[in-house]
Design a protein that fits this description.
The protein has 184 residues and is an alpha/beta fold. The protein has a six-stranded parallel β-sheet, sandwiched between helices. The protein is built from seven helices and six strands. The protein is globular and about 45 Å long. It binds adenosine-5'-triphosphate. The site of adenosine-5'-triphosphate has 18 residues, from helix 1, strand 4, helix 4 and helix 6.
Length: 184
């Protein structure tokens, strides 16, 4: 049975923190592949994503194309919003043993998600530490990664001020942002 990582998020934009976490999960669990699942809209975020679906998806495709074990799934973009992880895991259950990859902030929010108990039955939780986020969950696998103090919100603000995102996102994503200006 294949071991499949499921990594959901807004990816607005995908950044090096996301990619380092996904690779750490791939190597340490180990996983056969990691599916990046961009959300149409997170039920817990106040605002809709700033970047368009087309931009978020294009940046994820660029960010993952050089690692053959990374793939992008459109499953949540094809469903009506909001995007519930429990539905995504149900749809992916046939693909193998599922590991849900989360940052500590997202893991701490899990009790507020739709059907958290079923989420835990469908997937093993894999948690990455994150600055300023506390999370303790003995049932989860804690990833061994350096703390990555980067967030998409800060990157969007930086891009909107005309600052470069070079070295904070993969080069191909940095070039895409310079060319298409998804954040103004
Ligand atoms: P925003 O700042 O817009 O809220 P974000 O950087 O948290 O975005 P998301 O796409 O919402 O990015 O995150 C997807 C997943 O990646 C979540 O589980 C989140 O906790 C995790 N994640 C994102 N950045 C980091 C990071 N630097 N360290 C650990 N986990 C992270």
């Amino acid at each position: 049975m294949k071991a499949v990582g499921v990594f959901g998020g807004s990816f607005d934009p995908v950044h090096n923190g996301h990619l380092a976490i996904a690779l750490a999960a791939l190597e340490s669990i180990p996983l056969d592949r990691v599916l990046f699942v961009p959300a149409r809209r997170s039920p817990l975020k106040d605002e809709a994503p700033a970047g368009s679906e087309a931009d978020r998806l294009a940046m994820l495709e660029l960010a993952t194309r050089d690692e053959p074990r990374f793939a992008v799934s459109r499953i949540e973009l094809e469903r009506p919003a909001p995007s519930y992880t429990v539905q995504t895991l149900e749809a992916l259950a046939g693909q193998g043993r599922l590991f849900l990859i989360l940052g500590a902030d997202a893991a701490a929010d899990l009790p507020r998600w739709r059907d958290p108990e079923r989420v835990r039955r469908l997937a093993t939780l894999v948690v990455a530490r994150r600055p300023r986020s506390q999370h303790e969950d003995r049932a989860a696998i804690l990833l061994d990664t350096p703390l990555m103090d980067v967030s998409a919100r800060e990157l969007r603000a930086r891009a909107a001020r005309g600052r470069s995102l070079r070295y904070l996102v993969p080069d191909a994503v940095w070039r895409y942002i310079e060319e298409h200006h998804p954040y103004g």
